[in-house]
C-alpha cells in the first residue's frame, strides 16, 4: 500500500512522517527544485516563506499549547524546530535554512518515504492521497482540485516581509530589546519620532504597488496583511499594530519612541534579520526607498524583498470531516493551509492529524477524534464545521477550544487551565496511537 502525499511543506512533511512511522509507505511529491512558486527559493523541503517565527511558546497562548500537543504526539516539525531554534524571547523562531535542511534530511532518511521531485497536476480519487499543496498550489493542480471538488473553492492573497543583513543596520540609532517588554533582548528596534513616523507614513501609503495577477477583486487575510494596506486604514493603525512601542523604551535616552519598527533574527548565525510585520507587495525599488526611511535602516542591505502571492483554500466545512478526509471521496485527505488553517504550526498540526488518521484507516483501526478539548482538535472541528458567515482561514485560538465548565476571571489563569486540561486529554489520546 502506497500513499501519495502532494506537497513538501510543513503539512506534507508532517503527514508523510506520521504515515511512515506507522509502517505505511509514502511517495512525497514536491515540484521543487524543478519548479518554484513565486514565494519559494530553497530547493529543500519545509521552506518557511513568510516569517521564521512559529509564534509564542507559552502555554497561556493557544499556539503555544498547539506546539506542546504536537511535541507530545511525536511531531517531526516540532522536533526540527526545537533543534534549530533562535533567540526570540517567549516565541519560537528558527533558523530558516537550518530548519528546512534538517526536515529534508530526516524525511529523506526514512525507509518508508520516497521523495519524488515532480509536479503533480491532477488528483486521482482511486489513489490514497493527502493533498498538502499549500496556499501556493500550482495552476494545473488548482484547476484539478476545482474540478475534483466542484466550485466550492476560494482564494485570497498573502504577502511576505523583507530581510536585511545585520551588519547593514545602524546600531547607533537602533537598539536591542524584547518584543513588547517580554523575554530577553532578542529583537533589534528602530525608534521613530512623531515627525519621522509621519514622513514615513505618507511615503508608505503613496508608494507604488507591484502588479499581482487577479488581486483586484480578492481579499487579503487579516493575519498577514501587507503593511501598506494596514497603514491605509488610518494613520494610527500601525501604532497599535507592528509599530507599537509599548515596553520598548530607548536605553540611549530613556524615552518611549512614538513608533518602533522591530527586526527579528532570521538565521542561526545572526547575520540576517526580517522586518517584523512588514509583509508587503510594494515594488522592490519602492521597498528600498520607503523602508530606508526607517531610522537605522538608511543603508540597509536587502537580501530579500517582500513579495505578494496568491493563497488558496477550499471551503472545507462543506467538503471535509474532522479527520481532514474528503466526505465524498474517502481515499482523499487534505492538509495544511489549503484547508483553511492559517499559520505554520496550524498547517503542521493538520498534516499530523491527517497522516495519523489516514494511517488508522489503512490499518483498519478507528480514526482519532482529537476533540474540541485540544487545540489540535479545535482546528479540525473548525475547518469541518465552519463558523457563522463565510468560511475564512483561522489561526488557532482558545475560542475554538471548548470553554472550561467553571468561570475563571483572569484570562491568563483561564488559558493555563484550558491548556492543562488539553494536555491531559492528549495523554489519553496517545493511548489510541
Describe this structure as you would to a colleague.
- With 433 residues, the chain is an alpha/beta fold.
- It has two domains: 277 residues, FAD/NAD(P)-binding domain, CATH 3.50.50.60; 144 residues, Beta Barrel (Elongation Factor Tu (Ef-tu), domain 3).
- Helices cover 30% and strands 18% of the residues.
- The strands form four sheets. A six-stranded antiparallel beta sheet has the order 10-11-12-13-9-14.
- A hairpin with a 2-residue loop joins strand 10 and strand 11.
- Helix 1 runs parallel beside helix 9 and helix 2 runs parallel beside helix 9.
- It starts with a strand and ends with a helix.
- About 1% of the residues have low confidence.
Our measurement of the CA-to-CA distance between the termini, rounded to an integer number of angstroms, reads: 20 Å
The spatial strand order of the largest sheet comes to 10-11-12-13-9-14
What's the overall average pLDDT, rounded?
Answer: 90
Which secondary-structure class do the elements indicate?
A: alpha/beta
Question: Which CATH class of the largest domain?
Answer: Alpha Beta
Instruction: Report the principal-axis shape.
Output: globular
Query: What's the name of the CATH homologous superfamily of the largest domain?
Result: FAD/NAD(P)-binding domain
Q: Indicate the CATH topology of the largest domain.
A: FAD/NAD(P)-binding domain
Helix content: 25-40%
Q: Count of helical segments? A: 11
Largest sheet: 6 strands, antiparallel
Global Rg: 22 Å
Assigned CATH architecture of the largest domain: 3-Layer(bba) Sandwich
Low-confidence stretches: 213-218
The number of strands is: 16
- How are helices and strands ordered from N to C? EHEEHHEEHEEHEEEEHHEEHEEEHHH
Number of domains: 2
Beta fraction? 15-25%
Amino acid at each position: 500500500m502506497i500513499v501519495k502525499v502532494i506537497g513538501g511543506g510543513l503539512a506534507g512533511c508532517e503527514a508523510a512522517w506520521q504515515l511512515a512511522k506507522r509502517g505505511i509507505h509514502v511517495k512525497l511529491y514536491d515540484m521543487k527544485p524543478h519548479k518554484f512558486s513565486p514565494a519559494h527559493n530553497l530547493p529543500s523541503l519545509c521552506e518557511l516563506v513568510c516569517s521564521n517565527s512559529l509564534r509564542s511558546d507559552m502555554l497561556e497562548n493557544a499556539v503555544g499549547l498547539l506546539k506542546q500537543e504536537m511535541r507530545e504526539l511525536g511531531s517531526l516539525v516540532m522536533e526540527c524546530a526545537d533543534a534549530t531554534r533562535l533567540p526570540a524571547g517567549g516565541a519560537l523562531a528558527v533558523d530558516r535554512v537550518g530548519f528546512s535542511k534538517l526536515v529534508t534530511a530526516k524525511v529523506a532518511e526514512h525507509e518508508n518515504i520516497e521523495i519524488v521531485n515532480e509536479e503533480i497536476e491532477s488528483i486521482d480519487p482511486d489513489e490514497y492521497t493527502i493533498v498538502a499543496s499549500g496556499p501556493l498550489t500550482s495552476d494545473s493542480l488548482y484547476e484539478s482540485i476545482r474540478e475534483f471538488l466542484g466550485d466550492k473553492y476560494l482564494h485570497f492573497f498573502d504577502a511576505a516581509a523583507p530581510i536585511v543583513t545585520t551588519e547593514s543596520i545602524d546600531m547607533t540609532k537602533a537598539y536591542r530589546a524584547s518584543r513588547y517588554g517580554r523575554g530577553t533582548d532578542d529583537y533589534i528596534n528602530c525608534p521613530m519620532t512623531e515627525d519621522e513616523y509621519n514622513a514615513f507614513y505618507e511615503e508608505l501609503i503613496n508608494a507604488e504597488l507591484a502588479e499581482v495577477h487577479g488581486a483586484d477583486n480578492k481579499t487579503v487575510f487579516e493575519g498577514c496583511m501587507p503593511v501598506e494596506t494596514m497603514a491605509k486604514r488610518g494613520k494610527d493603525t500601525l501604532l497599535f499594530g507592528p509599530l507599537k512601542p509599548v515596553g520598548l523604551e530607548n536605553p540611549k535616552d530613556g524615552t518611549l519612541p512614538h513608533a518602533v519598527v522591530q527586526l527579528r533574527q532570521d538565521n542561526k548565525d545572526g547575520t540576517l534579520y526580517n522586518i517584523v510585520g512588514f509583509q508587503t507587495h510594494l515594488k522592490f525599488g519602492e521597498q528600498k526607498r520607503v523602508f530606508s526611511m526607517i531610522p537605522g535602516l538608511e543603508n540597509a542591505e536587502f537580501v530579500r524583498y517582500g513579495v505578494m502571492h496568491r493563497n488558496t483554500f477550499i471551503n472545507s466545512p462543506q467538503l471535509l470531516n474532522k479527520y481532514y478526509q474528503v466526505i465524498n471521496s474517502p481515499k482523499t485527505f487534505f492538509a495544511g493551509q489549503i484547508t483553511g488553517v492559517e499559520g505554520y504550526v496550524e498547517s503542521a498540526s493538520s498534516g499530523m492529524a491527517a497522516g495519523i488518521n489516514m494511517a488508522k484507516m489503512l490499518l483498519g483501526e478507528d480514526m482519532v477524534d482529537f476533540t474540541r478539548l485540544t487545540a489540535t482538535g479545535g482546528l479540525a472541528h473548525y475547518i469541518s464545521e465552519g463558523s457563522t458567515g463565510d468560511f475564512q482561514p483561522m489561526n488557532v485560538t482558545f475560542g475554538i477550544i471548548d470553554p472550561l465548565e467553571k468561570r475563571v476571571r483572569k484570562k491568563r489563569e483561564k488559558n493555563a487551565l484550558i491548556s492543562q486540561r488539553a494536555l491531559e486529554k492528549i495523554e489519553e489520546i496517545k493511548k489510541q496511537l
